[in-house]
Amino acid sequence: MTAYVIVDIDVHDPAGYEEYKKLAPAAVALYGGKYIARGGKTETLEGDWSPSRLVILEFPNSEQAKKWLNSEEYSAARKMRHATAKSNMVVIEGT
Q1: What is the pLDDT of residues 27-38, one digit of tens each?
Q2: Packing angle between helix 72-84 and helix 14-30, nearest 10 degrees?
Q3: Of the candidates 71, 90, 92, 65, which has an alpha carbon nearest to the alpha carbon of residue 23?
Q4: Which residue of 6, 85, 91, 93 has the fewest C-beta atoms within 10 A of its own C-beta?
Q5: Residue 55 host element (H or E)
Q6: pLDDT tens, residue by residue, 82-93
Q7: What's phi and psi for 24, nearest 5 deg?
Q8: Under a CB-based contact definition with an 8 Å cutoff, are residues 88 and 7 in contact?
Q9: What domains are there in the chain, each with its CATH number?
Q10: Predicted TM-score (pTM) of this structure
């Protein structure tokens, strides 16, 4: 079942985060993932959620998404993301 990883990112080191953006895509693709949305304009329709940078990834299933997140190939990029931004991440299965 297709799974989507949704990441709400608050970047506090823009220059460092630019380097992260160069590292991440190869690992995403290696685990069958693809970017659906990456930092585009958002508009709050209900509630008070106001993400500063929203990223949505699609994976073949939630197991692949978790393998990607914890993979050796994504490890350096993940450390860089943690050093340059605060993130909240969830995975949700599609229908």
Answers
A1: 999 999 999 999
A2: 160
A3: 71
A4: 93
A5: strand 53-59
A6: 999 999 999 999
A7: -70, -40
A8: yes
A9: 3-41+52-93 (3.30.70.100)
A10: 0.93
